[in-house]
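W.,

You were right to be curious about this one. When I first looked at the sequence I had no strong expectations either way, so I just let the prediction run and decided to look at it fresh. Below is the sequence, 133 residues in total, followed by the output.
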Amino acid sequence: MRIAGDLQKDTVYLSGEWAQRALSEIRLDKAILGVSAIDPHYGVSTSHHAEAQITRMVSKAAKTRIALADHTKFGRQRFAFVGPVTDIDILVTDSGTDPKYVQELRDAGVQVFVADGEQAAKGTNSRIIKQKS
């Protein structure tokens, strides 16, 4: 889905009144959200206030919120707060993520999937996502 708005070229997202209007009038089954920074205690954040606002609106419109964050995004905080980690239903990360962050998110009720980079690099058809309860 695409919405109208002002294109932010440095981070490739749309913001502004048109984007906000479009997002206020839709409902989504699933939203896949990129994450700039995630800290289990602080929450999700980004460097741009406008991006945080749009991300909150997309999150609010979705029944299921799926966040994507590689290991470099964990334990960090950025300028603009997006929301608590409990606003995320599912998080997909890579195997370089510190297991303490994975466990803290699971303890908060987030379903976490860790992609196994070795199997993906080999091109095998075996399961490349690991989930532990």
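Here's what jumped out at me. The longest strand covers residues 28-34. And, maybe more interesting for your project: The mean pLDDT is 80.

Coffee later to discuss?

I.
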